[in-house]
Specification:
Blueprint: H1 2-12, H2 19-24, E1 45-49, E2 57-61, E3 64-67, E4 75-79, H3 81-86, E5 96-98, E6 109-112
Antiparallel strand pairs: 1-4, 1-6, 2-3, 2-5
The chain binds 2-oxoglutaric acid (AKG) and fe (ii) ion.
Domain Fe2OG dioxygenase: 1-115
InterPro entries: IPNS-like_FE2OG_OXY, IPNS-like_sf, Oxoglu/Fe-dep_dioxygenase_dom, Plant_2OG-oxidoreductases
Protein name: Fe2OG dioxygenase domain-containing protein
């Protein structure tokens, strides 16, 4: 589909139809990201750098939404579902969401790890009760 779009855009500017696709090369980077809030991260560990001035991250604590306070330049460590599974739920993967406001831009940077795609994970044996 993207090839059709790139060709159509090139044609609309009276360019040769492969003008744009040629610049993307033979192995262009394709990315898809599904954003849905609220969620818990699927990661092992997520490290988040929040906006220095505009809050927005909220987590569920004791059944209520609370806003995570801003600490400029602090890295927030959030555990994801994979750590919850491996720790047999001793570590929790909190449900959270990012709420926006109508007038201020907000940026956040998230970095996370996950187990290898085909790797099966499970609770550590020593953490399982009989
Ligand atoms: O923007 C935020 O503060 C949260 C981002 C987030 O939840 C995520 O990347 O998984
Ligand atoms: Fe998240």
């Amino acid at each position: 589909m993207k090839d059709l779009l790139l060709k159509a855009m090139a044609k609309s500017l009276d360019l040769e139809e492969n003008s744009f696709s040629g610049q993307f090369g033979d192995n262009p980077v394709m990315q898809v990201r599904f954003n849905f809030y609220p969620h818990s991260d699927r990661s092992g560990v997520t490290v988040l750098l929040q906006d220095e001035e505009v809050e927005g991250l909220q987590i569920v604590k004791d059944g209520a939404w609370i806003t995570v306070p801003l600490i400029p330049r602090a890295l927030l460590v959030n555990l994801g579902n994979q750590m919850q599974i491996m720790s047999n739920r001793i570590f929790k993967s909190p449900v959270h969401k990012a709420v926006t406001n109508t007038d201020k831009p907000r940026i956040s940077v998230a970095m996370s790890n996950e187990a290898e795609v085909d790797k099966e994970i499970g609770p550590m044996e020593a953490l399982i009760d009989d």
